[in-house]
Fold:
Amino acid sequence: MEWEKQQQQQQPVAPPQTAEELNSGGGGGGGGGGMFVKVMTDEQMEVLRKQIAVYATICEQLVDLHKSMATQHDLAGARLGNLYCDPLVTAAGHKITGRQRWTPTPMQLQILERIFEQGNGTPSKQKIKEITSELSQHGQISETNVYNWFQNRRARSKRKQQVAATNNTESEVETEVESPNEKKTKPEDLQSSHMPTSMAEDLGYQNPEVSSGMHSID
Amino acid sequence: MEWEKQQQQQQPVAPPQTAEELNSGGGGGGGGGGMFVKVMTDEQMEVLRKQIAVYATICEQLVDLHKSMATQHDLAGARLGNLYCDPLVTAAGHKITGRQRWTPTPMQLQILERIFEQGNGTPSKQKIKEITSELSQHGQISETNVYNWFQNRRARSKRKQQVAATNNTESEVETEVESPNEKKTKPEDLQSSHMPTSMAEDLGYQNPEVSSGMHSID
DNA sequence: CTTTTATGAATGAAGG
DNA sequence: CCTTCATTCATAAAAG
Structure:
């Protein structure tokens, strides 16, 4: 069944919320104030988690970006796929190979993974619409993209299981063909959501609070 | 078709520190499992705030840095769609696991080439198994490797022809694509990327619930 | 050791 | 759904 041919929807500009706002958001505890405990609902907790995850993601991306840029200057820029068509380059008279393949942003992927994980393995058309709507908050996306993503995702994990089973069932006496450096199939295939984590270290942003959890912050 | 997507390469275990810990991390405050609400102490609250602030700060600085770098050169191409959760860098800056890819031995390559040449351009599932079996006598290999090899090989040679065709601009009219393989340029609207310069805005979106909610609770 | 090239692998999209 | 194709990414290998 064919969905709409890649409708491209304009992503609504997100509220120009700046970091400062966030910063001041929770700023109650510092100055002393109530000694009472704070109570949060699961919902609030989830929202908070998301927020932090978003920042973590951004940081990770930026760090990554800078790494590659630092490593190989413009080469990195030239090879990058997501770039807009260079206005000047198009003069070559060739096909304007603008990006035509959707690439989920980390944020979108995170959401998709979560939905996928929820076991709701049957993305109905209606569901797709909803998801697409939500994801478009984080970047351009179409229902087709979402649909394809789920299809591919499903197929992929299925194959993975299949292979895993094959490996385990292997009763043959194979001559341990394993390189010293090589690690064979790892029994782990759980694709739990990979929350963006740790990367502050790379930048020298040493932050005890962040990395070691909520102990002794002082 | 594809079987195991990846078997000999596994992703290194990501550092356990995730946003999730925010939930359980505050054990001191009595964050028991399965409760309706999460309870946090002032200290924990402060830590959380700091944590977010740290991310915000890092992001700001990185974005800033990126901007200035992007200004100098045209690049600004940010390819952040890539998300292999493969940090492979610990806090110490040491690599945990080296991702390594299969490299065919000369012997294997020879056999593969021979099979490819035989015109059996249709590597079936069964066929792959046989080939893999044979090749494994000459070194470590998996069906995935074989499958990928054929896929790549085919694509490559196809591309070669295509490029070669670009040269013969003489015979007929200009529409150079005489090969049965036409670049399926989708009549789709060009959806440009949005990341590079304004990623902060995109991902910076945040639900007001958090700050407001936390405030009211406080 | 750094830069470039060759190619294995990942994945979005199309076809059946 | 499942299979196949095309494009892209990352890295081993080769070149400088």
Observations:
- The two ends of chain B are 57 Å apart (CA to CA).
- Residues 2, 5-6, 9, 84, 101-104, 144-145, 148-149, 151-153, 156, 184, 186 of chain B lie near DNA strand C (CB under 10 Å from a C1').
- Chain B touches chain A through 104 residues (CB under 8 Å).
